[in-house]
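Handout, page 2. Input:
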Amino acid sequence: MRSRSAGLTLALALLPSRAYAAGAVAAVAQEATRSIGKTLGASVVVAAPLVSDQAVVKGEDLALRIAAIVAGQIGAGARAHPQTAQLATARALAGRASALVYVQGEIAEGDLRATVDVYPSMANAWDRIRNPLPPPASHAFANAKIDAEVRSFLTPLLLEQASIHRARCDEADVLAVACGDVDGDGGAELVLVSRNRIVLGRLRSGTFVAERTAAWSALAPRLPVPMREPLAGAVALPGRIAVGSTERGGLSLAPDLAPSGALLGVPAWGGDGVVCLRSEPSAGAFDGAPVDCAVNRDAKPKLAVPAPRFDTFAAANVGDAAGNARLVIAVREPSGKIRLKVGDASYVPEGTFGAQLAVGDLDEDGAPEIVTTIDGPDDAINVLTWAPATADLRPRLHIPAPGGVRALAMCPPEKHGEPALVAVVGSEVWLVRAGWQDGKAVPR
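Output:
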């Protein structure tokens, strides 16, 4: 919504780019294989039984798919065994192969993880006598966030059974929020951008607890021509935070919020990396396509947007169950109209919408969710699922927000693999997650 005190908000989503170069399964298999090389000759690739911290419907199928992609990456001489096996059995299965490639898949804390170990051939009897259990000759590890492809092997999520966790937040005049694992401890932090400062913190016992703060006055001077009602953005990345506003410009910050460089505009997540939005103060909006954020490079367009001017931008790469990813872009024009774009398909929903906007896949079914707010006095969060092929925008959730929605963003999967929508609503921070029917896992 448009807030006279806080101005407009730019809501951004954080998702690691490597999870979207391909689907998560292909991403982890390819990354791990690059570390062990492709000159393993006539090797046998065997998958270990999948280990998971949540309910799995087709665990063996997922383990075998990872192993099959690893075999394909190694080369024509490698073959994948059609069943999972423990390591001792896998050694026997390898027989006279040039090597055993043992692939261990795991789902933990919202990640798909793959460990690949290469064991030398034990075809020679003397080798087996001298060293019956040799250590791996090479070792590799890769991980990516759970996506729709991985979710197709797990218990499905139901968006209509979403839960809402509310936490008190004392930060005033919030303009933007971002969510991600900045310090690399495995848990997501929240970054709040207000008119006065940057705050990095977590939700604990029903309260947003600030762990680090930095005043804008100590980070950057005011711009010569700021917008009357400011726009702001934030992206939380491993080891780095990108923040900016149309009052102060853009900055790259270290996890301790120390500045590490300037950005060429207000940062936004562009699906595969950070992009920057350039403002036009006279229009009260962003002008033109997102550009590269580096100040020492030409301001070349990075993405095609469905409107030349907009006051809210959101983008995410959304993968489907087959591992195909597509970039979904949503913008809101100053008139309140929303324009959506994926590939060559575009859509303009009827009506006008509030100034908060987010894009992601909250139930990990491969269809993107467009999250909007109300253009009017009675604010609310509306979650809609977009089917680009039919131009259908289907309502899924309507959450009244009487305190007014100041910022929206998507959080990557954590714990049991559910992504989350984070919303700053009045004096609270809300986390909205898809759930299961009656609170229990539902088999496919």
